[in-house]
Prior knowledge:
- The complex is a heterodimer of chains A (568) and B (163).
- Chain A is an alpha+beta fold.
- Chain A is built from 18 helices and 24 strands.
- In chain A, a hairpin with a 2-residue loop joins β23 (527-536) and β24.
- In chain A, α7 packs antiparallel against α15 (444-482).
- Chain B is of the alpha+beta class and 163 residues long.
- In chain B, the strands form two sheets. Chain B has a four-stranded antiparallel beta sheet with strand order 1-2-3-4. Chain B has a three-stranded antiparallel beta sheet with strand order 5-6-7.
Amino acid sequence: xxxxxxxxxxxxxxxxxxxxxxxxxxxxxxxxxxxxxxxxxxxxxxxxxxxxxxxxxxxxxxxxxxxxxxxxxxxxxxxxxxxxxxxxxxxxxxxxxxxxxxxxxxxxxxxxxxxxxxxxxxxxxxxxxxxxxxxxxxxxxxxxxxxxxxxxxxxxxxxxxxxxxxxxxxxxxxxxxxxxxxxxxxxxxxxxxxxxxxxxxxxxxxxxxxxxxxxxxxxxxxxxxxxxxxxxxxxxxxxxxxxxxxxxxxxxxxxxxxxxxxxxxxxxxxxxxxxxxxxxxxxxxxxxxxxxxxxxxxxxxxxxxxxxxxxxxxxxxxxxxxxxxxxxxxxxxxxxxxxxxxxxxxxxxxxxxxxxxxxxxxxxxxxxxxxxxxxxxxxxxxxxxxxxxxxxxxxxxxxxxxxxxxxxxxxxxxxxxxxxxxxxxxxxxxxxxxxxxxxxxxxxxxxxxxxxxxxxxxxxxxxxxxxxxxxxxxxxxxxxxxxxxxxxxxxxxxxxxxxxxxxxxxxxxxxxxxxxxxxxxxxxxxxxxxxxxxxxxxxxxxxxxxxxxxxxxxxxxxxxxxxxxxxx
Amino acid sequence: xxxxxxxxxxxxxxxxxxxxxxxxxxxxxxxxxxxxxxxxxxxxxxxxxxxxxxxxxxxxxxxxxxxxxxxxxxxxxxxxxxxxxxxxxxxxxxxxxxxxxxxxxxxxxxxxxxxxxxxxxxxxxxxxxxxxxxxxxxxxxxxxxxxxxxxxxxxxxxxxxxx
Lengths: 568, 163
């Protein structure tokens, strides 16, 4: 990061020496509970066989034959097909701290060795699923620089205590290599890693129960889900009335009750995942690292070097804006997680390529509910390297012409509800023009009901579209009046507001390229959309602000290429 | 207002684009036409859908072979500045101007497909860690000069940043 000085971790904080707890070149095995996964899988398979047996009982003679075949087969599967391979894989699975790289070896018949140079490790994280927590293990993952082109290195089934030592060791070796002091590493296997690490903690924050509750209650996703369900229920009811379905009359009196119950059930059920995710949330600044840990059932831990922060984002949903709070997040590079479904998709649908440029990216949330007044204070404590960043108050406002553009863009061009309504109207026209004559429906009663239903759907959609456009008007006005941008020697700040708000701070050195985009309408008013391309998650992320004066967009391009800023 | 980038692409690239668009429009049009013919043989659609589609197909040819490549060519400009690569491109509605500082450039490639080879043209791809920018349809000599110049400037800028 610009202006960041790489500082040694706690290992070097005391006496200038780097203390290592893993011997260089020594192979370490993963936890034996890896083998215990076999019986768990075997139990699942046995359960499937039991269901098959149950279903096959009515088959008579065929059932006897099936029992003779599948009965012994289950035992053989448990003993040979599952346990033996798991044991073999465990036997050949090991990790090792080499002098310059961390290696992970695996494979029984074909040997795989993956290594990551310590200096290339962008972030270290571990995840413990509920099943892994029962066995007291977790999976540690190293993300390396290079984003989507490189895979992460994952070591499964490492004991929790060992993981903490590994995280310390990896960060320590990275610091030592960056400082060019690999010779100064002292091997002390019994060193108290926790004490060494805790000595380097300069800031720590735990989410209080009250803040957790506020985080959960102000999360917008369950609210949106509740409103979508309400809309679906209302549409279904309107359709039921129009089609004169027999029970429609009965639900007339309790319509509001049904809608209310549906909304509450969806909203409450949506709150639980948020609660489980942000429960026990804690963030820490330890040496040069920022560590975030959260989760009640599954545990997630991420350790990110301050140098690797690509941008900082303070996000406010509408609910958060009302409560005067925001979510603080860091954009950082992660490697590609190749999931099973992704592999299947690549094989079956190779033409569906993954979109590499996105306007949304996976970010590391470092504070899910920060009061606006405290956000700067938290950032200063957590990342003092960003002290030179511009502040919201320094922002230049958008020109007056931005208001008309914002109204057109928010209410018409970028209005997703309006797009859906237009699609519905086109579909309805196509159905009327082509499908109904094609099928040759002559039943007048059916046609009348069909017409009423379609009219109802189009009417409800149009009303929803008008409401959605009206709701966006205050957002557009707010965007034109309050949004802003600025830059100084080392950072670009983009503040985009509306019904929700987002403030992004991007270090100059992390902007890969800049773009000034202008549509036909923008060109007529000498406006442009200012874009900064940076890396976050697996993808490239575009941070942008629309309707900046063209002159400032040109000045931004000059700033982007200024050598003084590049060095800052 | 910044001055526009000085250099333009090789005019032959318009022919390449026209051939590509012609193939694409023909392929998509033929597929849709086949579907319409199939439906007409099964159901009584009348002449309207075929006529409407025929007009759209013809207009697509006019647009993609006549108008769009000319606009695209007119908008496409590039210039190698002292500290950055300046690219400007656009279509009918949208103009984009990319600024790529040399210190962010990771690698520079040249790519040549069958069609480009036939016209003795090549694409130059400038990659950063985030994405890649393609300068299409340069004649081979210009492309080589461009690559050499950018490589030299990338090297120079990396030395400047280190200093």
